[in-house]
Amino acid sequence: MRATSDRAAPSSRLPEHLQPEPGRIRTIAHRGDSASAPENTIDAFDAAARAGSDLIEIDVQLTADGDAAVIHDESAMRTTGIDAPVAELTAAQLSAADAGSWFGPEFAHARVPMLATVADWGAAHPDIGWLIEFKGLWTPAQMAGPVAALRGRGLTGRTILQSFDPDTVAAARDVAPDFARALLVWELDSEDKLFSRLREIEAAGCNPSGMLPNRTPGLAARLRDAGYSVFPWTLDEPDEWGAAGGAGVDGVITNRPGPFLDWHTIRWTGRTA
Q1: Which of 36, 37, 154, 244 is deepest in the core (most CB within 10 A)?
Q2: Domain span at residue 146?
Q3: Across all residues in the chain, what is the average pLDDT?
Q4: How many domains are contained in the chain?
């Protein structure tokens, strides 16, 4: 499954500055710097930028009126106090909700942003890349609006679209062939099936859960040999970072981007902070 010189590696579909680099593990802020500010809010993205993150990972859910809300859970309850599914709420209802007080009273101003708002923020922060998870099953028609918002703000060349659902990644392939794509993996049933899925959906990367590369010796190396980028999630402690680095990953998705970047600078590259 090794990528050969006569066939471009799948990771070549990534924007050039996000492609794998030997000796470098990219810092990917999980839902923003979610250890410092309420997840998936502009405050968390500001904190991620201050921490020096290479990319920000966010979650997108479809609203009742067809907008793309940046929120993780199917229910709005945990982060807004609204006891209803996101799919049954409008963009206006979510945008008006307090999405920060659960984290701390100083964040009572925080709101659930729509993807277009986040794309505006992204346009103003050109050094930040994006790893955008579409939650659940999305059709090409449903994905067209969010993709247009990203493309219209110049984020195509620094964005990776991903999902656990191979059909959603395939929808991204069909509606947004100019965007790189990755498949999220929770558990590994069969490596042969995994590689078959990755080829079918023309993925650039495979982003596995937590310590899956460590629990499956050689998995990260085999993915890399086949030309895929590897970003595991969600790793927050030095022993997890070290295990991931030893397994040969290209980036780490973490709630603690600042501490990870400090660790990477000192422990992995051999440089002082």
Answers
A1: 244
A2: 26-268
A3: 94
A4: 1
